[in-house]
Specification:
alpha+beta; Alpha-Beta Plaits; 4-stranded antiparallel beta sheet; 4 strands; 66% helix
């Protein structure tokens, strides 16, 4: 019971820290640059520019609207996880409104600001997803589209963000939209790294006619284990052996070079391996 409370406390702490980082990020970088990078933040930036409407209030109204829609279509269980962020985030945005007067950022290099903001956003959002909670807002629409029409969440989210970015470009120009794209790209890269970590290993799947030679090279020359299993082709239905080995990332080029030297026609697939356990 105590361990469960500790885990829950850590999750809540991650959520709070991520919301604080996002609020600081919005007031320190996104709003001063009029950077419309999708989401409720982007809409709030546009409405502040057009009507002088308080961004924190707009984010709150949009979040509440999305939460109500979520209750209607997804139910209480799938909505409750986003309620805390829906309420807390706008409050934090309001609380950090004057952060720019405390932390002075030189706006003369907007590209540097966008790069740093994208990285910080990736860290903050990665922490939020790790906490098991979410920030509500427009992702709720994507979730509903998936539940009702089986439209992939990634695709619908991308469409929603693109629409908001395009609308932002109408008011702030095409250059602003390009900065938004850079921001979103860096955010996605850093987010993946925070969630999965930096891969220390690479997994090789190898199909070759010189199986024994490559096996000997990996086992004897590189001192790594290798596993062989049989697969069947989907088109020709022929059976082939596939060799699997996991090696440290620093030896990537040694392995690829060695395979090509032994069999220039060898087929191999390389993927990141984030966790390896039980190997002897």
């Amino acid at each position: 019971m105590k361990e469960e409370w500790i885990k829950k406390g850590k999750r809540i702490l991650l959520l709070v820290v991520s919301l604080i980082l996002n609020a600081i990020l919005y007031n320190l970088f996104l709003l001063p640059l009029n950077l419309v990078a999708g989401g409720t933040n982007g809409v709030a930036t546009i409405t502040k520019y057009l009507y002088g409407f308080d961004p924190a209030m707009m984010i709150l109204l949009l979040s509440i609207a999305c939460a109500v829609i979520s209750l209607m279509y997804l139910g209480v269980n799938k909505t409750i996880g986003s309620l805390a962020a829906c309420i807390c985030y706008p409050i934090l945005v309001k609380a950090f409104t004057n952060i720019g007067s405390i932390i002075e950022i030189d706006p003369s290099d907007p590209l540097l600001m966008v790069i740093f903001a994208g990285a910080l956003s990736g860290v903050a959002n990665g922490m939020m997803y790790k906490s098991g909670y979410n920030n509500g807002g427009f992702p709720v629409i994507s979730q509903i589209l998936f539940e009702k029409n089986k439209i992939p969440v990634v695709k619908s989210s991308m469409v929603i963000n693109v629409i908001i970015v395009v609308i932002g470009s109408i008011f702030f120009g095409a250059t602003n939209a390009l900065y938004a794209i850079i921001f979103l790209y860096i955010n996605s890269i850093v987010l993946d790294k925070v969630l999965l970590g930096i891969s220390n290993n690479k997994a090789f799947y190898i199909i070759t006619d010189k199986e024994e030679e490559i096996k000997e090279y990996i086992i004897k020359s590189l001192n790594h284990t290798i596993t062989t299993f049989e697969v069947k082709g989907g088109f020709l239905k022929t059976k082939r052996n596939v060799m699997l080995t996991v090696i440290p990332s620093r030896e990537y080029y040694r392995v690829t070079t060695g395979i090509k030297e032994i069999d220039k026609d060898a087929f191999f697939l390389v993927t990141d391996s984030y966790q390896v356990e039980g190997a002897k």
